[in-house]
Structures
1.
Amino acid sequence: MNILVTGAAGYIGSHTCVELLNNGYDVISLDNYSNSSPKSLERVEEITSKSIKKYECDLRDVEGIEKIFEENKIDAVIHFAGLKAVGESCKIPFTYYENNVSGTVNLCQVMAKMGCKKLVFSSSATVYGGNDIPYVETFKTGVEISSPYGRTKFMIEEILKDAAVSDNEWKISLLRYFNPIGAHPSGKIGEDPRGIPNNLMPYISQVAIGKLKELSVFGDDYETKDGTCVRDYIHVCDLARGHLLALERLQKDECEGVEMYNLGAGKGYSVLEVISAFEKASGKTVNRKFAPRREGDLPEFYADAKKAKEYLGFETELGIDKMCEDTWRWQQNNPKGYE
Ligand code: NAD
Ligand code: UFG
């Protein structure tokens, strides 16, 4: 079975490719490498001893997407490609809407034309905005989203719902990720942010290895267990497995139009708890200081993980210690990422 993976060379895409190949799927990758390196796909091939058919293609290029569908019989698409930096999206919103929203519309138009209507989409917990916790799939979305990036995810979800209303052959799984961290246990693939990381885990690991001086912990006066923000961290390999389960459900025709699932552990860890888990896993001290709150951060959110368990049979298996161990192995083996 041929699965087109957009954004395959990226952090979550590469881990999902491993899972797909190990489970007998054939992978066709589409990526423009704007935030990744083709080397990650070579490493995926090394890990799995299988090969990937690779296309360097931008989702803004409709002819490029059509060519891939003309040259291959695609059974389903897992769609990761998009820009994801929250802060950057506030500075260059048009670029985000063009890449993420128009790119997805282009992809879906080609899919419809070629008769491939099974899609798994990378959404985000950010669509819930400032709702109560835990976040449940039935909550209203799109209300207090704090960035253009988050709004692209909300808009794409709405567009995909419209697609399913217009044509009942569409089977779509919207996967709302919580905070993916960790790396493949081989230490060969992992998160490789360009420049100074925005997210907590890559920042911590670069401090631990001595690349960055110290971590700023944004805020120590939130109404949480220890004053720092609480998030629902999920190991990227668990997340990758969630995609396979969603895909299987689409293949079995169990999916009714559009379905949405939280992919999270269902519990939260504070920034300080993550730091101490990382120190334990790495044996290193993570230098840190308290800094003012970061604009747009919510104090605490985590998933209600029941729906994914009931319909996909998905539960996380890898805890915070394993997330830190695997991140550290990746960081030590690849101090300069894929460079
Ligand atoms: P990533 O940046 O590592 O991977 C995205 C990939 O898409 C990259 O390889 C990039 O080169 C490619 N890409 C970007 N724009 C493209 C375009 N126009 N055409 C073709 N390729 C393009 O990001 P990731 O962490 O692997 O995230 C994957 C998806 O999951 C994204 O859609 C992201 O928004 C979503 N997501 C990520 C997180 C997270 O914390 N990592 C959380 C929630 C949702
Ligand atoms: N943090 C620090 N110092 C840092 C980086 C982060 O203290 O240098 C804190 C943040 O304040 C936050 C926590 O660590 O409390 C996690 O921050 P991340 O940036 O790693 O993750 P976020 O929860 O802010 O972002 C995630 C996803 C986005 C998504 C967003 C909103 O990465 O894709 O949730 O749902 F848009």
Note: The chain is about 40% helix and 15% strand.
2.
Amino acid sequence: MPPVGSRIGILTSGGDCAGLNAVIRAAVFRAVHTYGWEVVGLRQGTLGLLKRPVDTMHLDVNMFSGSILRESGTILGTTNTGDPFAFPMPDGSKKDRSAEVIEGYRQLGLAGLIVIGGDGSFRIMDKLAKQGNIPLVGVPKTIDNDVGRTENSIGFITAVNVATEALDRLQPTAASHNRVMILEVMGRDAGHIALVSGIAGGADIILMPEIPWKLEALAGKIKRLRDEEGRNFALVVVAEGVKTPEGRSVTQADVAGKVRYGGIGHYLGDRLADAAKAETRVTVLGHVQRGGSPATTDRVLGSAFGVAAVDLLAAGKHGRMVTWQNRHVVDVPIEDTISGPGGVNVEGDLVRTARGLGICLGDQ
Ligand code: F6P
């Protein structure tokens, strides 16, 4: 175990979400109170390690006496564009700057590093850790909840709550105007937010990247609601990563040519208006799902993960990620989480629940 007086580092990487500060707070409390260690926050993910002097924030228990637990975002800042193995340079080229990141880590004299990230960040950090012999422990976060081997990632439930509340707000206006309301939620590769919020928010149709869909199935569902159940409205939830029936992702490029997901909601709105002879309106929820005060579950999970991550460093267990399984915090090799399945289990209980409720999942 690193002796009293040792320093460990912590960073957040990838897209932010609610609950990251709860992890940082818990890690600091555990490290300081239980092991007598100092905790150094690294700013902006690995970008802080590329700066000279390295961009850090001293993390003290006193910092967390106020509102930080209640706030989303990350006090450390984050990045999802600075892969040190293919770092984007001003002239448009890519450069391997991994050695500089490792050197930055060395300069801080750290006994280990906690990375709060998603599968993309873990892929990069695992490679860096192996190259630089860095004692690494991972904490899973992503609103998409698609990190393999853990039932929940930090930020997921808060995002689901936001999407569910959006459905609560859309239903009365849908019913008042006889409309089909389409809610596009995040979820690049996985439909967890769409599925869980759709069930909780009384959706009639849920589309996820894991289940291919047919327009006739959707139009048929809306027709049945109208003709057989006397319903004058419908609620549709679609994950941003859902492809068209032809298998095309709906994306948009910014002026610099960077491609982002988004647009499947409007694609669907246009086609459903025609196929179901319905008046449609589309709401794209976007980054609203990342913010807001963290849900209780994200604070509790964040606290449990923060404590457990520090305990792993104390036990000398490196290259591991803390996970939530069957109401327990357990640890698994980080590599497993990168390659393991993180999408919705199409044979799982929640898909069965949705089908049991008569929710159309697009395939029938
Ligand atoms: O991976 C999480 C996520 O929220 C995705 O659902 C979404 O596509 C992406 O991040 C958005 O990232 P950015 O913040 O770069 O727009």
Note: The mean pLDDT is 96.
